[in-house]
Amino acid sequence: MTDTIHRLLGTRYVGLARNTIDYWMQPDDPTMTESRLMSAIDRAPALPHSSLRLYLHVPFCAQRCRFCAFSGGNSLDFRQAERYAALLVRQLHFMWGRSAMKGRPIRSVNIGGGSPDLLGPSIETVLGAVRSLAGFGDDTELAVEMTLSTVKPEFIETLVAHGVTKVSFGVQSLDATVRRYMRQPTTTKHLERVLRWIDGRIPVVNADLITGLPGQTREDVADDLDVLMADPRINAISSYLLTAGAAPALIAAIEAGTIPPPPPPLEQALMRLGTYGAFRRAGWVRRGTNTYVNPRGIAAAIVSKLAGDECIGASDYETFLLAVGPQAIASLPGVRIENLVDIEAWCAAVERDALPFCLPKCSTAHQRDMSLWTFPLRWEGLPHARVAAMKASGALSRAQIEILDALVHEGLVVDGPDRYALSLLGEVFMGQLVRDLKTDSARAAVDAYIDEGAALGHLVTLGRAHDVNPLNNRQLAKLSLDDGGA
Ligand SMILES: C[S@@+](CC[C@H](N)C(=O)[O-])C[C@H]1O[C@@H](n2cnc3c(N)ncnc32)[C@H](O)[C@@H]1O
Ligand code: SF4
User: Fold this and answer.
1) Could you give phi then psi for residue 108, rounded to 5 degrees?
2) Strand arrangement of the beta sheet that strand 419-422 belongs to
3) Are strands 204-211 and 166-172 parallel, antiparallel or unpaired?
4) What is the mean pLDDT of residues 301-324?
5) What's the whole-number average pLDDT of the chain?
6) Which residues have CB under 6 Å of ligand 2?
7) Where are the domains of the chain?
8) Of all atoms in ligand 1, which is nearest to the CA of residue 69?
9) Quick one: which ligand is closest to 74's CA?
10) For residue 366, which of 47, 19, 21 has the smallest C-alpha distance?
11) Taking the CA of residue 185 as centre, how many other CA atoms within 13 Å lie in the half-sphere pointing to its CB?
12) Cα–Cα dist 48/233, whole Å
């Protein structure tokens, strides 16, 4: 009875997902070797459904936002920009040159961070290199992230000159109190300034928002959407669900009472429902995991370029996601590769042509069921033919097939004429759907990652660790936890 009362919006769930970027976690493999990893990379086959996507990570950042899942790898030392840009390109050439997809059409390039704008003029090196790869063409999406408080007009001019098709930047919340809790600049004057600099010359201008932030109300979320959607210079919005498990610094601040706890689960679910409802009422369409675009504000040719890769993980087993730079996670058929988070260690390895990977965090396990569990993240839905092929190859367990059927029965997933798609309610619980569609062991790896985040946050509360960027570096987590527990 109690259980029934606590289920949210009539679904099977009592809360929203605790995971976002950790969807792709795999269990650690202490036995991984360089030769096993390299032979898996070399053997990864180009398959009929294979596509090529590039992600280049820039780990410089002048802020230390409390929620940031990426801050563990960020550094202020952007004087290294020139050296770093050259090494990023070197790793890109290495990965691309070895991959079976070398020379094939490139679907998308995402340059993210951190704050890629802190590369300054060295962004030229990176943009020039990706644009001169064979396979980069008119259909390739070229997207760059930047931070509103640090970006300079010269950077934007360079993006325009290189034909960048999309820029995105974090706003998260326009409310000054929420922003202060998150250690963001309380003023949002930078937004106006940056939109003026862009001056309509980049086809897609995307603002990131987050729901579920400490101190945030449903009214705040609705007001933020009203303001941003009414601005004709913004034609795409990514609205993420806060993932506390990925940000131990946030957990620590909540535990210590420095900031209030996140809103209760029902409020959070209503924030998500209100967000997707607002997009749909305004005629915006989903074109990414958490991204909606205004089709009246973007040329049709540009809408079709949008690859919807903002969540920086592979969408299916066949995808070649070549991700380079510290902390970036690459994925090829049959192999997951996690780069070292430590910037100097990563640079030094690339400089001497050694592998800049964190071996125990890499995996050569085949994830042939990936199209199933990533499907809630994909705006294209899941074609029946894909499910049939996965079933025929034995990629799906009986439990996975049963859960898909149950989600359809419960109205979270819609079984359309040729594909499965999320209902509005399914979008609200997207992360839970991903979790449920995984196998037991894959789900356990995600849960362990989130628990590890909570344990790290707790160490800060106990005074045994410090609330500084390396706290969020999960490649060091074991060390911190062992020390903290000692
Ligand atoms: C990788 S960050 C870089 C953005 C850029 N540095 C900026 O702040 O404008 C991209 C987006 O991820 C989202 N994000 C980061 N950490 C998150 C978390 N723990 N939970 C949910 N979303 C998060 C934020 O919306 C952020 O704008
Ligand atoms: S959200 Fe952006 S600005 Fe804030 S710490 Fe993360 S990467 Fe830096």
Assistant:
1) -155, 150
2) 382-383, 419-422, 413-415
3) parallel
4) 90
5) 93
6) 61, 63-65, 68, 70-71, 74, 113-115, 147, 170
7) 34-305, 370-438
8) 16
9) 2
10) 47
11) 13
12) 39
Fold of the domain spanning 34-305: pyruvate-formate lyase- activating enzyme (3.80.30)
Whether 357 is in the pocket of ligand 1, judged by its Cβ within 6 Å, is: no
150: left (phi over 0), alpha (psi -120 to 50) or beta: alpha
Determine phi and psi for 81, rounding to 5 degrees: -55, -45
pTM of the model: 0.96
| Rounded (10°) angle between helices 265-281 and 218-230 | 20
Residues 6+ apart with CB under 8 A from 174: 188, 220, 223, 224, 227
Residue from 57, 60, 71, 327 to probe ligand 2 pocket by mutation (most atoms less than 8 Å from CB):
71
Nearest residue (by CA) to ligand 2, atom 1, is 68
Amino acid identity, residue 460?
A: V
> Counting atoms of ligand 1 from 1, which one is nearest the CA of 147?
9
For residue 485, the model assigns a pLDDT of: 54
If you average pLDDT over residues 85-103, what whole number do you get?
97
pLDDT tens digits, residue range 1-19? 445 457 999 999 999 998 7
Q: What is the pLDDT of residues 368-408, one digit of tens each?
A: 999 999 999 999 999 999 999 999 999 999 999 999 999 99
Based on the number of CB atoms within 10 Å of its own CB, is 210 exposed (0-12), middle (13-18) or buried (19 or more)?
buried
Check pLDDT > 80 for residue 20.
no
Atom of ligand 1 nearest to the CA of 67: 19
Which residues have C-beta within 8 Å of that of residue 406, sequence separation ≥ 6?
A: none
- H helix count then E strand count, the chain: 19, 14
pLDDT of residue 192: 97
Give 344-371 pLDDT, tens digit per residue.
999 999 999 999 999 999 999 999 999 9
* Cα Rg of the chain, angstroms: 21
Taking the CA of residue 172 as reference, the ligand 2 atom at the shortest distance is: 1
| Most confident listed range (21-35, 410-424, 471-485) | 410-424
**SS3 category, 235:** coil
- The string of DSSP codes covering 120-187 is GGGHHHHHHHHHTSTT--TT-EEEEEE-TTT--HHHHHHHHHTT--EEEEEEE---HHHHHHTTS-S-
SS3 assignment, position 286:
strand
DSSP 332: E
Two structure tokens written together for 243: 């993932």
Site to probe by mutation for ligand 1, drawn from 149, 174, 195, 240 as the one with most ligand atoms within 8 Å of Cβ, is: 240
Q: For position 247, what pLDDT does the model report?
A: 85
